[in-house]
From TrEMBL:
Gene: nrdG
InterPro entries tied to this protein: NrdG, Organic_radical-activating, Radical_activat_CS, rSAM
Alphabetical list of Pfam families matching this protein: Fer4_12
Signal peptide span: none
Enzyme kind, highest EC tier: oxidoreductase
Keywords: 4Fe-4S, Iron, Iron-sulfur, Metal-binding, Oxidoreductase, S-adenosyl-L-methionine
Transmembrane segments: none
EC number: 1.97.1.-
Homology family: Belongs to the organic radical-activating enzymes family.
Full protein name: Anaerobic ribonucleoside-triphosphate reductase-activating protein
Required cofactor names: [4Fe-4S] cluster
Catalysis performed (reactions): glycyl-[protein] + reduced [flavodoxin] + S-adenosyl-L-methionine = glycin-2-yl radical-[protein] + semiquinone [flavodoxin] + 5'-deoxyadenosine + L-methionine + H(+)
Domain of life: Bacteria
Domain Radical SAM core: 17-168
Length: 168
């Protein structure tokens, strides 16, 4: 794995609310979306947080055998697709489930035609897409904050070249 620096706001070592199973959650630092009612405004500044080598994150994740998956949250993970693609590739090699959040829609991400974004998507199992829209907030939604956001089966969607919803 090529070691890269990732700008991180923080991590949660073990979570059961950020995706299926017991997960390690990485909150990336830096977000361009500024959704009204955002729960993590401290993650917006692209100069905030700290830069962490992905090798250190990988070590922390793999040393806990209870962790079945990793969630890339934000901030906006897709503003740092290069280090995250590298990390996610290694996670998949170790059999971990990878889920990512993004304030972009699936269509916006694909439309960027960015090689690193495509590399990161290729490693993801599930993507939760779209901005948090306060007027569509729904506390009953699984792993999502507002009704516009979709739980996307990334691999099936890449194959079908259209959004296929995930059944997690
Ligand atoms: S995309 Fe997420 S982190 Fe960024 S402003 Fe919206 S809710 Fe906050």
């Amino acid at each position: 794995m090529k070691d890269e620096l990732l700008r991180v706001a923080g991590v949660i070592d073990e979570s059961i609310v950020d995706g299926p199973g017991i997960r390690f959650v990485i909150f990336t630092q830096g977000c361009p979306h500024h959704c009204a009612g955002c729960h993590n405004p401290q993650t917006h500044d692209f100069d905030g947080g700290e830069q962490v080598p992905i090798s250190r994150l990988l070590e922390d994740i793999l040393e806990n055998p209870l962790i079945s998956g990793v969630t890339l949250s934000g901030g906006e993970p897709f503003c740092q697709p290069k280090p995250l693609a590298e990390l996610a590739q290694e996670l998949k090699r170790h059999g971990k489930h990878v889920m990512a959040y993004t304030g972009y829609t699936w269509e916006q991400l694909r439309g960027k035609q960015d090689a690193d974004i495509e590399r990161l998507l290729a490693q993801c199992d599930v993507l939760v897409d779209g901005k948090f829209i306060e007027s569509q907030k729904d506390m009953l939604l699984r792993f999502r904050g507002s009704r516009n956001q979709r739980l996307i089966d990334v691999q099936k969607s890449l194959q079908a070249e259209q959004v296929v919803l995930a059944g997690v």
